[in-house]
Design a protein that fits this description.
- The protein is an alpha/beta fold.
- 19% of the residues lie in helices and 24% in strands.
- The longest helix has 17 residues.
- The two termini are 27 Å apart.
- 46% of the residues are buried.
């Protein structure tokens, strides 16, 4: 699937005081490294989250989640931790309920009905605490569904991969394209697992001195599903060039990447150092990533590992628990 050609005259949706969704024309903003993150405390009701048959140790999950926040803050990320939503067991997985690309945040209608109530408090946060344009899918098409875990924007590119999955449908993908009209949205059929990002995430962008034509690296599971997804992604007419890096363990392909904001001066528009946050306990996959970074001269990237296995009992991955903006 190829998005229509992008021109400065294209439209996007933005929030105004009197018109929640109004058509405006703007030129696309350049990609600015995200130095803010949004997370949410784990609710006491997490045990009843999806999949409901899986047991979880809530105190252990909370301890690991605090460490997750500590790692982000260690490198200068300004982390805003929202209060737990005890009526919504899966609400710690904030990635699904807000999709940020440059200066716009899309508030989706989540694919599982028990999670629909997470949208309103998420929109309230962005209204009160940021100047981002807000697109609220919940006001647009009652049949549209979209989970942020299906949306993979590769930072520094105009390419967005979106999984059409159990939680994301064609109507939701159509609104995603409207929300980000200056980007190429590529639909990827996800027939196994929960989300696209269960099998694929992106490594940090190439350094500025590597040139504009340097390839971007995608991190995918080396399982059959991950390799099949790469075949589909590789056939997309993308603006940027992508190369795959396959991890031997499924749980290791989901990583959080962010700039070292503690090293960015106020007059710099891009960060020169990046961090890859990986789950600990997967040395083979960690070595695969290190080898890929070395092969492609990614000397500006470092790896930080942390224990984060408990939330996987509720289908949680690393990217699920934060929204970078």
């Amino acid at each position: 699937h190829k998005a229509p050609p992008t021109t400065p005259s294209q439209h996007h949706w933005t929030r105004t005081k009197h018109h929640p969704l109004r058509h405006t024309t703007t030129t696309p903003m350049p990609s600015v490294p995200p130095c803010h993150a949004l997370t949410r405390n784990i609710p006491s009701s997490l045990e009843s989250g999806q999949p409901i048959e899986n047991h979880i140790n809530v105190p252990k999950a909370r301890e690991q989640h605090r460490h997750y926040v500590d790692v982000l803050r260690k490198y200068g990320i300004d982390v805003h931790v929202l209060d737990a939503l005890h009526n919504y067991p899966d609400s710690v997985f904030v990635e699904d309920s807000a999709i940020v690309v440059n200066q716009t945040v899309l508030i989706p209608c989540l694919g599982h009905q028990t999670r629909r109530g997470e949208a309103k408090p998420m929109r309230h946060f962005f209204e009160q605490n940021t100047k981002l344009n807000i697109v609220d899918m919940n006001q647009m098409d009652e049949h549209a569904t979209l989970d942020g875990g299906d949306v993979l924007w590769v930072f520094g590119t105009k390419d967005i991969f979106v999984g059409q999955s159990k939680r994301t449908n064609t109507a939701g993908i159509a609104i995603l394209q409207k929300a980000f009209p200056h980007f190429h949205v590529h639909t990827i059929q996800v027939r196994q697992g929960l989300h696209l990002k269960t099998f694929a995430t992106a490594l940090p962008p190439p350094a500025a001195d590597q040139g504009r034509d340097a390839p971007h690296l995608l991190l995918l599971s080396g399982c059959d599903t991950g390799r099949e997804l790469w075949k589909i992604m590789n056939m997309c007419k993308t603006q940027a060039q992508f190369l795959p890096v396959f991890t031997p363990e499924l749980a290791a392909c989901n990583v959080v990447v962010f700039p070292r904001c503690d090293t960015i001066s106020q007059d710099q528009s891009t960060g020169d150092k990046w961090i890859i946050m990986m789950k600990a306990g997967y040395p083979k996959s960690e070595q695969v990533v290190k080898d890929a970074l070395k092969k492609h001269s990614y000397t500006h990237v470092s790896i930080e590992t942390l224990e984060y296995d408990e939330l996987s009992n509720k289908d949680g991955c690393l990217t699920c628990c934060s929204v970078l903006y």
